[in-house]
Design brief:
The complex is a heterodimer of chains A (324) and B (501).
Chain A: H1 2-18, E1 33-37, H2 44-60, E2 64-68, H3 75-83, E3 90-95, E4 114-121, E5 126-130, H4 138-147, E6 154-155, H5 162-173, H6 189-197, E7 203-206, H7 208-216, E8 220-225, H8 240-244, E9 254-259, H9 264-277, H10 281-289, E10 297-298, H11 299-319
Parallel strand pairs in A: 1-2, 1-3, 6-7
Antiparallel strand pairs in A: 3-9, 4-9, 4-10, 5-7, 5-8
Helix pairs in contact in A: 2-9
Chain B: H1 3-13, H2 16-34, H3 40-51, H4 56-73, H5 75-81, H6 93-101, H7 105-139, H8 143-160, H9 165-179, E1 182-183, E2 190-191, H10 205-222, H11 245-251, H12 253-267, H13 273-288, H14 300-316, H15 318-324, H16 330-341, H17 348-353, H18 355-383, H19 391-410, H20 414-431, H21 437-459, H22 471-497
Antiparallel strand pairs in B: 1-2
Helix pairs in contact in B: 1-18, 2-4, 2-18, 3-4, 3-16, 4-16, 4-18, 5-6, 5-7, 6-7, 7-12, 7-14, 7-15, 7-18, 8-9, 8-13, 8-21, 8-22, 9-21, 10-19, 10-20, 12-13, 12-14, 13-14, 19-20
The chains are: A alpha/beta (324), B mainly alpha (501).
Keywords (chain A): Signal
InterPro entries (chain A): BUG, Bug_dom1
Pfam families (chain A): TctC (PF03401)
Chain lengths: 324, 501
């Protein structure tokens, strides 16, 4: 009996350290926190998430482990965050795709499934082509698309993701059938840039930051930015209205979130930490060096942004035939 | 790179701080790597807070040394207990375990460590001499080439698996089938998930691997057919852990060279390189061997080739990361973050603006792999005692490791269930002489194959000839087709020549 009790105690300690029980009494976080990133390692969401996780780690003194759960155009990762236990030990980075899943007939990862903690980044999407491409401006690219319907292939993320919507929506604004430059589904911007450099596709629709290292290497160039005004980080890239005379600025976001029903303590602590992190000189400099903006919104404003994006995007998706 | 740069980089690396960091990181990597289920990625992630307080070179050196040691140390439980540390080491875990069953555990571990270190040094040399060149070459690989490479990797399973190709093929297809579980990459629709949310992300392979190798082995140990590796004879403390390794190298020098070259070239391909290299190396080794019938019975040749390619690939995985800022896996993604934080922004500019620092970073690869040898030497000494531990103690310990390892990958209890089910399935399969390694291969390469197939089909507008429309893809495609067709033709020819009886 004594041995049994000892074994019981030992297993209780074992289970406790693994962490499904016993956190209720102590202050959060008393052990490692998992940060789920729904996109592949090396993309912009991954890079910014790792930067934020490092800062959180410094502030809370516990590891914030970034785990990439890719697949299904971010749906796997988003669903994993939404379905994890709301104990504060699984958080995640959500992206604008959360507002688009439901319209595509994919339930389980809509904004209501999350506790939104705050936005830290919002970078407009750019149009990138190979450096040696025959088209030097966005206008020439559009002419090439018109002249050879179906020939030029574009990629940047999954089918139905924001990168896709940005590209198809741009063509739609220009009154070109989106099928004139078909979309190739990929796991994220990193594999798409690889495809571009390997001369397998012609256009990558992704933020300039994610194209930056290949642009620096002289392998790619960014033709335009889908924003209303020029970016402070990339003052040389023309906006869509300057380059093509149409307005189209689907602004993505990257924000911290947890499953719905996160404890108040976690929400307050993480939101406060995120506000602090996004004011931190070092963090801003690090993000800037990689070409990412720092665009903080607190939980409340972030929630409004998310809901407004959903309304805007769903109508845009219907226009290009991406919504069910 | 000039000689001056090399000298000044050496000066940066051969500082006591760097050497101590590499030593400590290696020991840390050894412990993480030797515990089944705890991965190199996890070891690296836990290291990040410490790198905040370090200079750039020791920070990167710590990451490199930890991963190199953790991945190499994964071969120790592989050889002793048949628990592979990484998907790559699953390629040769059966070979190492077979050597152990012959009473040559020390040789199996010695080969693993020495050739990992040698392969890693080779990879570091390649990185030093030709990083920009190799990176440019790797940028030419598109989904068409990745598709063929993944198929080539799958074909090796026919060579890896036993002498019954049909059974090997069955196992492979089972692995591929399991890999389709989860949300479809292209359309986001759930497949074979039966409404279970935990399956949306697919069946994770680390728990499956632990279950299929380690837990199945425990089940076999409990059954009447149990066979236990022999306990090695007591030797003096001064004995040579690496006895027999030099002899093996003299017998199979080409295996080492082929494995390292293959590892360094395939390893540089972002995303797929690392896992593929060891499988293809092992398959190639068997294909070119003078004694292919010895494979699978505890033969040194395949072990040498696969473990050298494993660590050579580890070094060259940094090529696209350093030159273009494209990380191939989670470890390099973490490392790129650290480089940025230290102001060493990876990219072609780094090669021009700060060649000394860059060379110093690459030299730490060589250093980390050199440290593998003495630390591995001592580790083998300690590890041999594992076999002397009574069965009654070691079985529950392994079970605990299986459970913790499966849990720790994604922090879900569901993965423990996956591990247990995978173990039961593997036990039944092996009882009926179906090989296990091809299942893991199918599981790892299935998504790579599918994703690149779909991408290529979308690019080629559904035209299958698109797979031959690019020069490298065409070359790889013809090679793959030849590997499939030639054996069939050959067996047809022998059958025609022989009169029907």
């Amino acid at each position: 009996m004594k041995a049994f009790k000892a074994a019981l105690a030992a297993s209780a300690i074992f289970v406790g350290t693994l962490g499904s029980v016993g956190h209720a009494f102590a202050e959060w976080p008393e052990r490692a926190v998992t940060v789920i990133v729904p996109w592949s390692a090396g993309g912009g969401t991954d890079a910014t998430a790792r930067a934020v996780a490092q800062e959180l780690e410094e502030r809370f003194g516990q590891p914030f482990n970034v785990v990439n759960r890719t697949g299904g155009g971010g749906l796997v990762g988003h669903i994993t965050i939404a379905n994890s236990g709301p104990d504060g030990y699984t958080l995640g980075v959500i992206t604008i795709e959360t507002t688009m899943f439901e319209a595509q007939g994919l339930p389980g990862a809509s904004p209501e499934a999350f506790t939104l903690l705050g936005r830290f980044n919002a970078d407009a999407i750019g149009i990138n082509v190979r450096a040696d491409a025959p088209y030097g401006t966005a206008k020439e690219l559009v002419e090439a698309v018109k002249a050879n319907p179906g020939q030029l292939k574009a990629s940047g993320a999954n089918r139905g993701g924001l990168s896709h919507l940005a590209w198809a929506g741009l063509l739609n604004r220009l009154e070109i059938d989106p099928q004139a430059a078909p979309w190739v589904a990929s796991d994220g911007s990193a594999p798409a840039m690889q495809q571009l450099a390997a001369n397998a596709i012609e256009v990558v629709s992704t933020s300039p930051a994610e194209a930056q290292s290949l642009v620096d290497a002289g392998e790619a160039k960014t033709l335009l930015l889908m924003a209303d005004e020029r970016s402070a980080l990339y003052p040389d890239i023309p906006t869509v209205s300057e380059a093509l005379g149409v307005a189209w600025s689907p602004l993505p976001f990257r924000g911290l979130a947890g499953p719905a029903g996160l404890p108040e303590e976690v929400v307050t602590k993480v939101s406060a930490a995120l506000a602090e992190i996004t004011k931190d000189e070092e963090f801003i400099a690090l993000m800037k060096s990689r070409g990412f903006s720092v665009a903080y919104q607190d939980a409340e404003t972030f929630t409004k942004t998310v809901m407004r994006s959903r309304d805007d995007l769903v109508s845009a998706m219907q226009a290009v035939g991406l919504a069910k | 790179m000039t000689f001056d740069v090399l000298i000044s980089a050496l000066w940066v690396v051969l500082q006591p701080q760097v050497l101590i960091v590499v030593l400590l990181a290696s020991v840390y990597g050894l412990f993480i790597g030797a515990i089944p289920g705890l991965s190199a990625t996890m070891a690296t992630a836990l290291l990040i807070p410490l790198t905040f307080y370090m200079d750039p070179v020791p920070a990167i050196a710590a990451i490199v040394a930890t991963t190199a040691m953790a991945i190499t140390a994964g071969d120790i439980p592989g050889a002793l207990l048949r628990i592979p540390g990484t998907p790559a080491s699953a390629a040769y875990v059966e070979e190492a375990y077979a050597l152990n069953m012959k009473g040559k555990a020390q040789l199996a571990m010695g080969l693993g460590i020495v050739f990992s270190a040698a392969g890693g040094l080779f990879g570091a040399l390649v990185l030093l001499v030709s990083a920009p060149l190799l990176a440019r070459a790797s940028l030419n690989f598109s989904s068409f080439e990745f598709f063929w490479l993944a198929l080539l990797g799958l074909l090796t399973s026919a060579l890896v698996s036993t002498n019954a190709p049909a059974r090997g093929l069955f196992s492979l297809c089972l692995g591929l089938l399991i890999s389709t579980v989860g949300l479809d990459v292209t359309s986001g629709q759930p497949r074979f998930t039966f409404g279970v949310i935990d399956l949306y992300g697919g069946v994770s392979f680390i728990p499956t691997m632990i279950g299929m190798f380690a837990f199945a082995e425990l089940l076999r140990g409990l059954s009447s057919a149990a066979s236990v590796p022999p306990v090695p004879a007591k030797e003096s403390v001064f004995s040579n852990s690496f006895a027999g390794v030099w002899g093996a190298f003299r017998r199979y020098p080409w295996s080492f060279l082929r494995g390292s070259t293959l590892g360094s070239s395939i390893g540089a391909l972002p995303g797929v390189g690392g896992d593929l290299a060891a499988w293809i190396a092992y398959g190639m080794s068997r294909r070119f061997s003078k004694t292919p019938e010895k494979f699978g019975t505890g033969h040194e040749e395949g072990l040498i080739e696969a473990s050298s390619s494993n660590n050579a690939g580890l070094s060259s995985a940094w090529v696209p990361a350093l030159v273009f800022g494209i990380p191939g896996d989670a470890v390099t993604a973490i490392a790129i973050g650290v480089l940025f934080m230290k102001g060493l922004n990876p990219g072609p500019k780094l090669f021009v603006e700060n060649p000394t620092m860059l060379t110093a970073v690459i030299l730490t690869f060589a250093l980390a792999n050199l440290f593998l040898i003495p630390i591995g030497f001592l580790a083998i000494k300690g590890a041999r005692y594992v076999l002397a531990v009574p069965r009654g103690l070691i079985v529950p310990t392994i079970l605990v490791f299986c459970v913790v390892g499966s849990f720790a990958i994604n922090n879900t209890v569901f993965d423990i269930a996956i591990m247990l089910v995978a173990g039961l399935v593997a036990y039944l399969m092996e009882a009926n002489r179906f090989p296990i390694a091809p299942v893991i291969l199918g599981l790892v390469l299935g998504p790579v194959l599918e994703r690149n197939f779909i991408m290529s089909m979308q690019i080629a507008d559904g035209n299958l000839l698109g797979f031959f429309s690019r020069p490298v893809a065409a070359g790889l495609g013809i090679l793959v087709c030849a590997i499939i067709v030639i054996p069939i033709l050959r067996s047809l020819a022998t059958r025609l020549r022989r009169p029907l009886s």
